[in-house]
Amino acid sequence: MALGKYSRVDGRKSSSSYCSTVTVVVFVALCLVGVWMMTSSSVVPVQNSDVSQENKNEVKTPVTESNAENSNDARNDESSKPAVEDNGPRDEGQQKQFEDSQGDLPEDATKVDNNVSTNQVEKNDKPEGTENNNADKQEEKPVEEKKDDVLEKKEDGPKDESENAAKNKVDGEPQVENKESESGETKANNPDDNEKKSEENSVKTDGEKGEAQVVEKEENKKDEKTDQGPTEKKDNPPEVFPSGAQSELLNESTIQNGSFSTQATESKNAKEVQGASQPQNQNTYSWKLCNTTAGPDYIPCLDNLEAIMKLRTTKHYEHRERHCPDNPPTCLVPMPEGYRRSIEWPTSREKIWYRNVPHSKLAEVKGHQNWVKSVPEVAWGKRSRVVLDVGCGVASFGGFLFDRDVLTMSLAPKDEHEAQVQFALERGIPAISAVMGTKRLPYPGRVFDVVHCARCRVPWHIEGGKLLLELNRLLRPGGFFVWSATPIYQKLPEDVEIWKLCALLVTAMKKLTQAMCWEVISITKDRVNGVGIAVYRKTTSNECYEQRPTNDPPLCKDSDDPNAAWNVPLQSCMHKLPVAPSERGSQWPEQWPARVGKPPYWLTSSEVGVYGKPAPEDVVADYEHWKRVVSNSYLNGLGINWSTVRNVMDMRAVYGGLAAALRELNVWVMNIVSIDAPDTLPIIYERGLFGIYHDWCESFSTYPRSYDLLHADHLFSKIKKKCNFMALVAEVDRILRPEGKIIVRDKVEIISELESIFKSMQWEIRMTYSKDKEGLLYVQKTMWRPKEQETITYAIA
């Protein structure tokens, strides 16, 4: 009956039973789906639930802004069609890491995780729901394959899915870690090894994305729950990304911070690097124009009008001497209106731009120099190489002697009406602003082969012959003093009086030079231009001094050093001459150019050089070094157009090696030896080069825009410890011509600081280089000048 009863019921109500059955099945299926969803979501850590929920609420908002691939994935969230229809194959690195769940991140944010996610996903091949979820097992395979294809590239093919699952289940570690453990290293214990592996596989990140990565991972998690369509990979069955892996990826990202640096770390490192190469306070450098009475011709130590006004007397040209301010200026000197780049040598010897040196009458004061042929004993360019031209005018004498391989140091006082030194420098002829007043000239004793003076206005004989005795200090034993007077001064009544004065001076000079034991070589008059020339030669022994009837002028005390020249008062006395063969000055240097490449005869191996070697070896090593630097770097590597370079300054010369290495070029080099450095300036002169003592805590005695190229070898680092660093930078700007260059060799931190400072001055950084904490900086000055002015009160009349 039961069967009949049930049979009757089923037969009678088959349609109703069928619907009930379908309803039950659907209900059960929905329950199973709900249980699966609850089980799947249960693997997300509690601490990330807020982030996950927040991201779930944001998933649908930016989808319309994503690329076509993201849009296709969004449209297929509810379907079970293979993702390959919309996204295509994921081989050869052309598809993004998370093809099957793009989320709402932009493409670049997804790409960042290519190196992180593959490694991190592998660490989570065993999510909590793996045992009860076949779909989760299917997702493990694409992750393993992506790892093998991108990170490791050591496997010939993908491992079996069950094998991977078994390994992960037993070991509890990702597959990548298993491979590393085979080689004896573990990522968890060796975070630095992740960096090595990343470098080995050339995986580059833009930095950890921090919160962006979290958003991506959580949104991928939601997509994984809805997008059940398998993603097909080349030669592999379609599989689904595991839903539970996203929580483990988040944990892996935290663990791997030591291997794959975070965005915060990389940003910090980048800022530190930029802080070294670009100034920490780049925007704090504020430049102003110097507002002074001298304007574009401002020389701080010669235009200190406040100090000059306090002088008790100017009888000995004290107002033309150096009076440096206590606080050197840090402003920039303005340029003359209409300034142009200087004309190149040798054209500049005969022609310059008027607006660069707007003193028209200077061009008229150009004497003829034919008389130099009438003194064969001098042997220009052979025996006589280094010349001092006192009262040089516009330095025509020095310019003329360049063709004879003679290097002339011209000096004249600063004259606001004529600016003779500025005119000489613009012509490409060496010159400094100086005066024979109350102090010694900044040169060592017994270094000049010839001293020349073309004016009769200097009262050589007064005050016991003090001025002429200073020239005697500078002149080598056996050197020449040439005194010439051009007839141009006889044209005007004033010049006639001066010429008469010269005649009186000749008489006074005759008596003085005899007392100084100077020999008269010749007193002649040039037949061509009427120039009168008197040539004297300094004695080479002390016998004459001892045989004089009177000790007038007297001999200096033995304690008086003839090489002492920085702010030392003039003395009306003569220094004894060196006698021993090993003493400097007892012999004449070798002829030019042989003298440039050899250590001076008076250097002995018992003396230690600046670089620690025996002094003669030190000089040779220095010369060889700079020859290599000039040949390999300065002439070729830096890209300097040497046809635009004429006036060069080595701001920290040692033995003059740079100048010697450049001697084949049409340049001259002013070698600066700091007053607190080893006194090597006599060596420089002995080699047939020239230079001057100076203190870089003060301004240099030259006009603005004087040099085409400055060279500073470890100067700035020394000044930084000693005095005003920014004042030296301003001084560099003052003496360097627009479009001029500076080469700085110094410590890396100094190079970085200077680079930022020069950038703030709108200079062009041509090259920077560093190695072993040492660096090189090559910069070119521009025409830029600031708008705001700074009034220098002590330089205002």
From TrEMBL:
GO terms for molecular function: methyltransferase activity. Residues 45-244, 259-280 are annotated as: Disordered. The keyword Transferase applies. It is a single-pass membrane protein; Single-pass type II membrane protein. Its main location: membrane. The keyword Transferase applies. Residues 112-121 have a biased composition (Polar residues). InterPro entries: Put_SAM_MeTrfase (IPR004159), SAM-dependent_MTases_sf (IPR029063). The chain crosses the membrane at residues 21-39. GO terms for cellular component: endosome; membrane; trans-Golgi network. It is found in: Endomembrane system; Membrane. Gene3D superfamilies: Vaccinia Virus protein VP39. Pfam families: Methyltransf_29. Residues 72-99, 122-185, 193-237 have a biased composition (Basic and acidic residues). GO terms for biological process: methylation. Keywords: Glycoprotein, Membrane, Methyltransferase, Signal-anchor, Transferase, Transmembrane, Transmembrane helix. It comes from the Eukaryota. Belongs to the methyltransferase superfamily. This is Methyltransferase PMT26. It comes from Sesamum latifolium.
